[in-house]
Amino acid sequence: MYQLLKQIAKTGIVTEPAPHPDTALRALEQRLGEVILKHFGRALAIRHVDAGSCNGCELEIHAMNSPYYNLEQLGIKFVASPRHADMLLVTGPVSRNMEVALKRTWEATPDPKLVVAIGDCGCTGGIFGESYASCGRISNVIPVDVAVPGCPPAPVAIMQGILTAISTGQRR
Amino acid sequence: MRLNELPIEAEPLAGAMPAFCATVPAVELRSICEQARARKARLVALWGSDETPRIESNPGAGYALHIALAFPSGLLWLSVPLSREDPRYPGIADIYPSANRMQRAAADLLGIAPSADADRRKWLRHAAWPEDAFPLRKDFDATGRPGRDEDRYAFVTVGGEGVHEIPVGPVHAGTIEPGHFRFSIVGEKILRLEERLGYKHKGIEKRFEAITLEEGAKLAGRVSGDSTVAYAWAYAMAVEGATGTVPPPRALALRGILLELERIANHLGDLGYLGNDVALSFGFFQFWRLKEDLLRTNAGLFGHRYLMDLIAPGGVAKNLSRREAELLVEHIESIRREVVTLKSIYDEHAGAQDRFIMTGQVLPELAERTGLTGLAGRASGIAHDLRVDHPIPPWQQLDPRMASHTRGDVAARVSVRFDEVFESMRLIKALVEQLPPGEIRAPVAAAEAGARGLGWVEGWRGEVLIALDVAGAGRIHRLHPHDPSWQNWPLLEHAVHGNIVPDFPLINKSFNLSYSGQDL
């Protein structure tokens, strides 16, 4: 126990400041009013859905919970069910085998809801494109508010995407 | 030439790893596999191909079944020609249990099927295309959207008083890849788990056939993102073998450094999550801090946090200066010191050890019979590691030490991860010290039609295989990327027997298998 406490004390707080929203990432105009956004901004619940990624984007989504980024300090947390979620964080491309599951997850998420597409494949279909097995980008299957490119996008970029989705700024 | 281990004629296959090719008729397949099994050969992969475009050079060409078997002397690539009219073959899933899902995938994609008594349920197809369409046949239009089929799947049901089912997924509660798990339980105890995978099937193998050999490197690095270095190296090795390209020694040493960095990053992440899953969130935060330190080192020195697109056929894309190499060793050393502390905290934490020990056990006998491989295999007494079994450059003079354990539980898989982190750090330091001077990339020669190449690399999860058959003009006739998760997923079903449902996430994480790598 001594060793454990010593390690915690030695480590200290490593969390870095959060990024600012970037309206250039918006795919759709902000549809939510300021009152709702004010609440979302303090307590946002996210459901992550992997709709067919290579699992690279998942590595960076995990990293957002590391002490350097510490997503929870912003009042943002991941929840176990879409029914508890305000936002879907979706990686892709959407495989045809996940098309129905993604639509159902979106339908199960209560309104008002937001969708953030993560990664080059989520934004455009990426290297996998559209085929007999792939529907391509996320917005081919469900409406996307904010799209974050990158292969995979760094944790700061994903955080920026999330914060953009709950900001009042309009698309440039 | 005659193979040491089997009474068949086999041609040596050019390339970095020792490998042989042989063509055998379908009637001999089972007896060859039985003899191979008796000689402790491991099944590395099974896949199919459509050979009909080669009808001019090979009259009567239809389809083919391919099997990769690992012998002590190297890898044997067996090809079994199958007729166009009746592409059936005698199944081998009773000899090599891990062949079951591979046979079903080959049936979904190519319509080549094992004879009637085998498990004939679909595996990768789900409802995305009809039963009589086969995406990997050459006449299949990859860009079309075939009509949806109905998705019925016959799960094995467990009867008896008090037995009930818990269906989980494909969308899980945590940040994980999609797959479906069907638990049959009594009270809290798991009687049976049946996995259904294939949700991430996005047509990777068909995609390879539409792009050039050069473009393929990028796609190979995205078969399973967490193993991007292992796949990119295996792809490069396959292309180099098929084209007779010899990468410079410096490039091979740099590839070794990249592969070990990937192993350390993944092991650190898993060790953190394994702590998290037993309510030791301290472990999660500490290990993910160290993992982030390593990822930032990667980004600073190589330009990518996960080292994507750094290995290409012929060599590597980024050199390491003397100063950068010293910096790398410094960073690795500072992470190593902290991992030593964290290991002793994990070892002495009674609560964590209580959850780790005897949880999710796969005994060596079962592991051997069913073909458990890679990291999980080494935790269950399967002493194989390609860096040790076939120490080609850059491993040659480094004498890599294999981590191993025999208890096969979560604690054993934790222990193997710790050992491998320290060994990888030692290897990186040794590689940096002995970094040969010279070029980092050799020109890649043109590939001839029909040339074959094999890439076989010990990734952090286990052996990654790329089997390449060139179409000519820099195109791919058939490429099969094979993830060790194919072999290990079925063992997860065994590992959970008799455990309680709340331990499933812990057991699952201790294997940490790839969905994307097996769904393709």
Please state the overall shape of chain A, judged from the principal axes of the Cα atoms: globular
Q: How many strand units of chain B?
A: 15
**Biggest sheet: strand arrangement of chain A:** 2-1-3-4-5
Level of helix content of chain B?
Answer: 25-40%
- Supply the helix-strand structural class of chain A: alpha/beta
Would you identify the CATH H-level superfamily of the domain at 11-141 in chain B? NADH:ubiquinone oxidoreductase Nqo5 subunit
Mean pLDDT of chain A: 91
Radius of gyration of chain A: 17 Å
How much is the average pLDDT of chain B? 94
Strand order of the largest sheet of chain B: 1-2-5-4-3
| Assembly of the depicted chains | heterodimer
Structural class of chain B, by secondary structure, is alpha+beta
Name of the CATH first level of chain A: Alpha Beta
CATH architecture of the domain at 11-141 in chain B: 2-Layer Sandwich
Please describe what this structure looks like.
The complex is a heterodimer of chains A (172) and B (520). Chain A has a five-stranded parallel sheet, with helices on both faces. The mean pLDDT of chain A is 91. Chain A has one domain: Rossmann fold (3-Layer(aba) Sandwich). Chain A has 172 residues and is an alpha/beta fold. Chain B is 39% helix and 17% strand. Chain B is built from 16 helices and 15 strands. A five-stranded mixed sheet of chain B has the order 1-2-5-4-3. In chain B, strands 8-9-10 form a three-stranded antiparallel sheet. In chain B, α5 packs antiparallel against α6, α6 runs antiparallel to α7 and α6 runs antiparallel to α13. The two termini of chain B are 35 Å apart. Chains A and B meet through α1, β1, α3 and α4 of A and α3, α7 and α8 of B.
Keywords, separated by commas or semicolons:
heterodimer, A: 172 residues, alpha/beta, Rossmann fold, B: 520 residues, alpha+beta, Beta Polymerase, domain 2, five-stranded mixed β-sheet, three-stranded antiparallel β-sheet, globular
